[in-house]
């Protein structure tokens, strides 16, 4: 099949922690010759600075969100915050747990959602954009045509995160503690008042428990590119 790449479309990918979303989104962006907008990294950045500056109030979190200037390197590898590369500092368990907490606040969400829309629309002028998060298909870009909800069995998700942290040499705790904190985060993310994690009615659900990363990416890209060639006749 001859692949056609087209600018001007956004692919929304949502799902719970550790379902393989980040890896899949990165590879899909590469496959589509597009860019990746990792929105979780924005919430993690707010949490990172909150820890660093001992901020613990809703007003304080919102102030941090407003102050941060986000950018991403064009190779989809890392987020730059106020010009500084954040790297693995955003991946510790402390930051992960606090990211879920800061993301419940309306002020934080409004600021980050506006920033996500601005970046996504700007990038989509010149290339396909894969946007990854929890509320992309429901709140940030509810009108996009390509929406996926990536999920997996909680034990499989915890095992994957454990292996990923081990490989990076990042302190992440035991498998049991990752499973526990994932369950807590899922509960928090899906029960919050503003923009909770949920599957959009028109999203395609992809259960990755028994699929390899490559199978998931192939499934998604075939779906997108197949639709595009149908539209182009
Ligand atoms: O995808 P992640 O694990 O990097 O996300 C970190 C946290 O950020 C997650 O617990 C919930 C929050 N988040 C959110 O509320 N909305 C998004 N669009 C992305 C992430």
Question: In short, what is this structure?
Answer:
With 233 residues, this protein is α/β, with parallel strands linked by helices.
What does this structure look like?
The protein has one domain (10-228): P-loop containing nucleotide triphosphate hydrolases (Rossmann fold). The protein is an alpha/beta fold and 233 residues long. Residues 1-5 have low confidence and may be disordered. A hairpin with a 6-residue loop joins strand 3 (70-72) and strand 4 (79-81). It is globular, with a radius of gyration of 17 Å. The protein has helices at residues 21-31, 40-52, 58-67, 93-102, 106-124, 136-140, 154-168, 175-191, 213-231, and strands spanning 10-14, 35-38, 70-72, 79-81, 84-85, 129-133, 146-151, 204-207. The strands form 2 sheets. The chain has a 5-stranded parallel beta sheet with strand order 2-6-1-7-8, with helices on both faces. A 3-stranded antiparallel beta sheet has the order 3-4-5, with helices on one face. It contains 9 helices and 8 strands. The structure holds 2'-deoxycytidine-5'-monophosphate. The site of 2'-deoxycytidine-5'-monophosphate (DC) has 13 residues, from helix 2, helix 4 and helix 8.
């Amino acid at each position: 099949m001859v692949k056609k790449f087209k600018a001007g479309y956004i692919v929304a990918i949502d799902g719970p922690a550790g379902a393989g979303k980040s890896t899949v989104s990165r590879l899909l962006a590469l496959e589509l010759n597009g860019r990746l907008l990792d929105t979780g990294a924005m919430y993690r950045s707010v949490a990172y600075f909150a820890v660093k500056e001992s901020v613990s109030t809703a007003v304080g979190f919102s102030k941090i969100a407003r102050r941060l200037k986000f950018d991403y390197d064009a190779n989809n590898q890392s987020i730059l915050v106020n010009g500084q590369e954040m790297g693995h500092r955003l991946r510790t368990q402390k930051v992960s747990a606090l990211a879920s907490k800061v993301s419940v606040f309306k002020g934080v969400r409004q600021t980050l959602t506006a920033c996500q829309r601005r970046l996504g629309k700007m990038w989509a002028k010149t290339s396909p954009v894969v946007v990854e998060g929890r509320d992309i298909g429901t709140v940030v870009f509810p009108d996009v045509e390509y929406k996926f909800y990536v999920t997996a069995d909680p034990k499989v998700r915890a095992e994957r995160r454990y292996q990923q942290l081990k490989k990076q040499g990042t302190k992440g705790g035991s498998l049991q503690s990752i499973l526990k904190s994932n369950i807590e985060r899922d509960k928090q993310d899906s029960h919050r008042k503003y923009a909770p994690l949920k599957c959009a009615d028109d999203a395609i659900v992809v259960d990755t428990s028994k699929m390899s990363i490559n199978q998931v990416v192939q499934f998604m890209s075939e779906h997108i590119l197949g639709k595009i060639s149908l539209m182009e006749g």
